[in-house]
Amino acid sequence: MKHRLLARPLRLLPVLALVGALLALSAGIASARVAPPRPAAATTSYKATIKDGRAAAQALLEQSGAASLSLALVSGDRVVWQEAFGYADKATSTAPQADTMYGIGSVSKMLATVAAMKLVDQGLVELDAPLALYVPELATQFPVYGQVTIRMLLDHSSGFPGTTYGDASTSVYFPGYLQQVLDAVRTERPKTTPGYMSVYCNDGFTLIEALIPAVTDKTYAQFVHDEITAPLGMDHTAFPLEPFAVGTYAKAYDGDVAHPQEVLNVLASGAVYSTPTDMGRLGTMLMNGGIVNGTRILSAKAVADMSADQTRLSFNPVPSNAVRYGLGWDTVTEPGLKAVGVAAWCKGGDSGDYHAAFTVAPTATLSVTVTTVTPLGSGQCETLGQRILLHALVDQGTIRRLPKPVPAVAPPVKKASAAELGMMEGVWAMNQELFRIAPSASDPQALTFSTLGQSGWSPPGEGLRLRTDGRFHVDGKAGSLYTMAAGGRRYLVNTTVGGYGHYLDSSLLAQKLHPLKALSAAWQSRVGHLWLAVNEQPDSSTYASDGGPQLLVSAVPDLAGYVTVTTPAYGNQVVDPSESDTLGSMLLQIPGFGSRDLEDAVVTKHGAEEWIQFGSTLYRPQTTVPTLSGGANTVIFGAEGDAEWRVLSSAASVQIGAGTAWRLYDADMAVLAAGTTFPATASAPTSRCYVLLFGPAGSSATVTVTPAAGARTDRQSAALQNRPAAPWPTCSARLR
To answer: What is the CATH number of the domain that holds 657?
Structure first.
């Protein structure tokens, strides 16, 4: 989970792409005729499935440029097809094998769920008992957290803000991350009342890591091994607690440059490495009601609880088949198979380097797992898995033919009233981006759709028009958008074609923002400025990636009263600063994925400076970073042990005498050099390069600066220190 960090989940694709793919609700689903469900015959060869799936997997690699992909199709308790494609190691032209491990991202949550349900089966915990009963330190600052049950952790309804991204990814395993999450959720304001709605939440699953040792004598990783992976024979499933042996895992790449092994500290939420055949064993256990080869792993009731739709009684005005949380599962009504009358459960996973999809169709006794490396995503893995299962259903005779695509047609245009246009127009927000729907300059009956970027609203998508079905569609494309009121808020509802292309699915896309009072002078003074992270581990991916340590505060064009807080991990997130000069409040309430990973922006005083706490990460103002002068400079690390930033006024050679780690950045926060040995020397090629230093609390380090020949003097470059670097860090990563 590095900050070229975690690829966005399928549900959070850029909204312009979503609009371009809209499909009308009124279009009919031409689905396959469904035969009565029956278990797959042991003799089914699945030859047609394998032929088509192989071609689809190879085409996916070729189109994406991803280095490798591995998959397995399981029927009952036998692996009917396992195959890997591409190169696990490009340098040695080594192909992935059946036992080559891939990160499975948030598919790791299935192991956390099974672990929690094991505790329930063993009578050690109750599913609907408060977590604080077993982990008392949780409920300290906000009493409402005492209402969070174990079920709420597993169905994303805890009300926690979302994901503690600070130190979630480091170069080596960081065992202190769990305590950071506990500290964070104790002090972060709840997003909603526990149980009100289910919104994707990694921290809820991370807290399963605290639950296990609280009621057993084992760590989370040991419990998963002893109680789940070892009994199931999942011999190539592991946590990255230590570096893996070379050749045991598939490498991810930028071009032909291999990434180092990805290490995530979110053990229960997204850190597991596994293989498709290992995951197939887990699938067999689940489709068999908790038993594999005569060994019971879970009770049948536990499996049934996992596969029940947990969103039925929560705030969920537009239930999406793709997001019907079970316990652990993203959906217990997998839409591609539901469209042909077959029940299935699905979980997707993304990290910075790896992507996966795990789908189980219990009545058809089938499961499929697809794993791959970036730049492919879990959505593409899910679609490939869905395609494989549809062909397998034909091969086994459960359905008679493949379903037909939904026709890409839109209903006839209908004249829109001013009120109908007005409900669509305005600024809308989801968890990591904002967009605007506005009247078209060329057609008063048409609307444009644009996203907020560094240069404002762009690019406009033309041609949203009201149709006879009462929804807005794009000319020449299938699809629809409409608005609805629910829970005292107005939402934009999006209907799209999904997966293999044979079904439609609707979901709440975004929440409408209404103008507030003008920004206070305090908040206005922060607009356009950057802050720099100071309190994460030296090897955190926040520091290691270009632009990662920055936080930017911006105003929202054409909408009074709001600001956005932008970081690579959290994206371009809107907050409400209208009630306080020191608090920008998270405000979105969109079930599913649309309001995941929200945070408050909390402004605190450090001497005369304003610092910002966002999530677990503390940021200092970039404009007040001290300048290193020529010669020897003494840098003192404060009692908190925070990292120290310094800026160079000219091109120079820098010698760092002591500390625990250091980094050198250019003016745009691209990493130029880094190290952990001392004394260390680095060269800053231009003015306004930044030095980041780490050291023990209360210690000091000497930094000696030798200006390069012909470099500007400090006085000539003094004005540079108060000019922000290139703003708008790119949001390129999420954990799912």
So the answer is: 2.60.120
CA gap 154, 277 in Å, rounded: 25
230 and 130, same domain (yes or no): yes
pTM value > 0.90: yes
Assess if residue 441 is contained within a domain.
Answer: no
Closest CA to 491 of 570, 591, 410: 591
H helix intervals, 237-361:
267-270, 276-287, 300-306, 335-338
- Do 532 and 667 fall within a single domain? no
- Whether residue 302 is contained in a domain is answered as yes
The whole-angstrom separation of Cα 448 and Cα 462 is 5
Which is it for the CA torsion 166, 613, 565, 12, positive or negative?
positive
What pLDDT was estimated at residue 711?
57
Q: Which of 358, 192, 163 is nearest to 278 (CA)?
A: 358
Confidence at residue 402, expressed as pLDDT on a 0 to 100 scale:
97
- Average pLDDT, consecutive stretches of 10 residues, N- to C-terminus, the chain (736 residues): 31 35 30 43 84 98 97 96 98 97 98 98 98 88 91 98 96 97 92 97 98 97 98 98 97 96 98 98 98 95 98 96 97 98 98 98 98 97 98 97 92 95 97 94 92 88 90 84 97 94 95 97 97 97 90 96 95 96 98 97 96 97 96 96 96 96 95 96 95 97 90 42 39 56
The confidence score (pLDDT) of residue 15 equals: 37
Q: 160 lies in a domain?
A: yes
Q: In whole angstroms, give the CA distance from residue 732 to residue 12.
A: 12
Q: 173 vs 68, 162, 168, 213, 235, CA distance in Å?
A: 25, 21, 9, 19, 21
Give all strands of the β-sheet with 68-75 in edge-to-edge order. 78-86, 68-75, 366-373, 354-361, 345-350
* Strand ordering across the sheet containing 661-665: 627-628, 644-648, 690-694, 661-665, 671-675
- If 0-12 CB within 10 Å is exposed, 13-18 middle and 19+ buried, where does residue 448 land? buried
**What's the domain count of the chain?**
3
**Does residue 696 sit in the same domain as residue 710?**
yes
Assign residue 297 the CATH number of its domain: 3.40.710.10
Quick check: is 135 in a domain? yes
Rounded CA-CA distance 485/466 in Å is 18
Single residue among 569, 604, 622 that ends a domain in this structure:
622
Q: Which pLDDT does position 546 carry in this prediction?
A: 82
Structural domain of residue 697, as residue ranges? 624-722
Strand-strand pairing, 563-567 and 489-498: unpaired
Question: Do 620 and 669 contact (CB within 8 A), yes or no?
Answer: no
* End-to-end Cα spacing for the chain: 10
What does the pLDDT read at residue 360? 98
